[in-house]
Design goal:
Shape: globular
Distance between the termini: 101 Å
Number of helices: 4
Helix content: 10-25%
Largest sheet: 6 strands, mixed
CATH architecture: Alpha-Beta Complex
Structural class: alpha+beta
Order of helices and strands: HEEEEEHEEEHH
Number of strands: 8
Strand order of the largest sheet: 1-4-5-6-7-8
CATH class: Alpha Beta
């Protein structure tokens, strides 16, 4: 009597070209942002996915009114609440790494966010909007995405902030608490 030996077959390597943009975000971009041990960006407090930031342009045609398409960023990364530092646009792997950069730059400008990134799951293309004299755009490997502290440090250096300034400077995009004044 012969005995059958079962062998395990290894799953075949995933073909990134067949994955959707959502798959790329879930399998490659979010893990790169969070880090292998969760030591980078906190998914609960620092990462917003598919973040809508406009309701869409109002379009008036005769007596009818409708809204245009709302704008939404794939990721908005914040150093602290109400202190966004980066916008990340994802594309599926059939696009180049930088294919989402025009959209990321548009959103970064609209929201006054200093760092814009694009990714297709292979790497990140970074555009540093705070730089005026050296390299503005660079490609970085997935595992080398900057931490919140690295981006905050670069932002503060570009603005010329010192430790005391950092403590009192209002964050970009923040609305100071309005205090009613007595007449």
């Amino acid at each position: 009597m012969s005995r059958r030996v079962r062998t395990r077959t290894r799953p075949s390597r995933m073909n990134k070209k067949t994955l959707t943009e959502t798959d790329i975000r879930t399998k490659f971009i979010t893990p790169a942002l969070v880090g292998p041990n969760g030591e980078k960006w906190d998914v609960m407090t620092q990462i917003r996915e598919e973040a809508y930031f406009t309701k869409g342009r109002v379009i008036v045609r005769g007596k009818t009114v409708q809204r245009g398409e709302a704008k939404k960023a794939d990721y908005i990364l914040s150093y602290k609440p109400n202190l966004p530092l980066a916008v990340v646009e994802a594309k599926d792997n059939n696009h180049a790494v930088g294919a989402g950069m025009p959209q990321a730059l548009e959103y970064a400008e609209l929201l006054d966010i200093p760092f814009a990134y694009s990714s297709n799951g292979d790497a990140f293309l970074e555009h540093d909007r705070t730089v005026t004299t050296s390299t503005v755009t660079r490609e970085i490997p997935l595992d080398q995405f900057p931490t919140p502290e690295e981006l905050w440090s670069r932002y503060c250096a570009a603005k010329g902030y010192t430790a005391p300034h950092e403590a009192i400077e209002p964050p970009p995009n923040s609305v100071p608490n309005a205090t009613p004044h007595a007449p």
